[in-house]
Amino acid sequence: STWWSSVSMGPPDVILGITEAYKRDTDPKKVNLGVGAYRDDEGKPFILPSVRQAEERLHCKMLNHEYAPIGGEAGYTDLVAQLAFGEDSPVLKEKSNCTVQTLSGTGALRLGLEFITKHYNQTKEIWMPSPTWGNHPQICNTLNLPHKQYRYYDKKTHGFDLCGAMEDISKIPAGSIILLHACAHNPTGVDPKKEEWIQLSQVIKDKKIFPFFDMAYQGFATGSVDNDAFAVRQFVNDGHQVMLAQSFAKNMGLYGERAGALTFLCGDAESAAKVMSQVKIMIRTMYSNPPLYGARIVQEILSVPELKQQWLADVKSMADRIISMRQQLRAGIEGAGNKQNWQHITDQIGMFCYTGLNADQVAKLTKDHHIYLTKDGRISVAGISSKNVNYVAEAMHKVTS
Ligand code: PMP
User: Fold this and answer.
1) Strand partners, 127
2) Any idea where the Aminotransferase class I/classII large domain is (predicted)?
3) In ligand 1, which atom is closest to the CA atom of 181?
4) What's the CA-to-centroid distance between 249 and ligand 1, angstroms?
5) Probe residue for ligand 1, chosen from 16, 101, 133 as the CB with the greatest number of ligand atoms within 8 Å
6) Active site residue 214
């Protein structure tokens, strides 16, 4: 026996398991639609031109490798908060925010939820959309934070279930926390419309529920970072003191660099300072301080006007390619003579599409056509390219008719 003989085997990560099965498949037609990372039209990882330019500029600066401050560089946190809340946001001007760099979006969620377990003095219950990103409940489980679900996705329309969501939210106990995907909902690709966000903001305010936004895809949904920040800014305008997790994995393609941020809006500068003091203690005992490289790239892009312009164009180019693949996929399935309604493919937004395919159809797609995706029928539209879109459309037609 060893010191670890009592450890049991844990289940593999669902999404990474799909990629492994894809890698083992030797068929040249194989397609991986499981991966949650952007691919260019050649199916390759994409290094944004703005990121390249930022890297070159950083290289010339010959920066050292000293530690970052515990909460990250202020130059970084100020800029990322402005990107989320808007440059003229009053909450930033009055410095009532506490913003720290985190280990990308996951790190922001983990830190934020851990902070809740320790310092939140109301109903420690996290309400999540059904369905939601698998890591949301998992992080809560790790922290022993109870979590529940509110209705979000309507299986019949493949769209947002406004009535169900409003009804469920109106029954959430006061003081609870509601988790909201700011844009490009994962896994469904279904976002509330602007008028619907306004209604959600109202009911959440009336019921005294605390909103925690997860914004992992700012710019990825519509191609505009301001448009995609609509929900967050609407809530702030309506007087909510939100919490916000941000990630630059997708919108800057900085996946492995782990650049993200966590913001608490605290109402006034004094309580922001107190929250900051406690967040720093929490960070100090977990990983001491955040990594520099990705944050430096983000800071360079957001602070140099030409780079920022280039980046906005880069984000738009990614969003546009995804939108165009949605159109081609839908046209391909319909063009093959499929009689079902596929409008949701183009109505949904962001990296993912919830196709409506059931587990049997997904299994067929993988077994007969070498197309890999999660059992819930979610496809990563970023995995589709002009080369494989017809093949995927044909296959989806075949397994659904
Ligand atoms: N939230 C959601 C909804 C996501 O889809 C992701 C990425 N898969 C994240 C957070 C965080 O990703 P990362 O830690 O890479 O920033």
Assistant:
1) 148, 178
2) 29-395
3) 3
4) 8
5) 133
6) yes
Cα(188) to centroid of ligand 1, in Å?
Answer: 14
Question: Which of 214, 244, 262, 352 to mutate to test ligand 1, by most ligand atoms within 8 A of the CB atom?
Answer: 214
**Tokens of residue 187, six digits:** 């896994």
pLDDT by residue, tens only, the chain of 401 residues: 899 999 999 988 878 889 999 999 999 999 999 988 999 999 999 999 999 999 999 999 999 999 999 999 999 999 999 999 999 999 999 999 999 999 999 999 999 999 999 999 999 999 999 999 999 999 999 999 999 999 999 999 999 999 999 999 999 999 999 999 999 999 999 999 999 999 999 999 999 999 999 999 999 999 999 999 999 999 999 999 999 999 999 999 999 999 999 999 999 999 999 999 999 999 999 999 999 999 999 999 999 999 999 999 999 999 999 999 999 999 999 999 999 999 999 999 999 999 999 999 999 999 999 999 999 999 999 999 999 999 999 999 999 99
The closest-lying atom of ligand 1 relative to the alpha carbon of residue 105 is 16
Pocket residues for ligand 1 (CB within 6 Å)?
Answer: 36, 104-106, 133, 181, 186, 214, 216, 247, 249, 255, 260
The angle, 0 to 180 degrees and rounded to 10, between the axes of the packed helices 74-85 and 293-303 is 60
ipTM of the complex model: 0.99
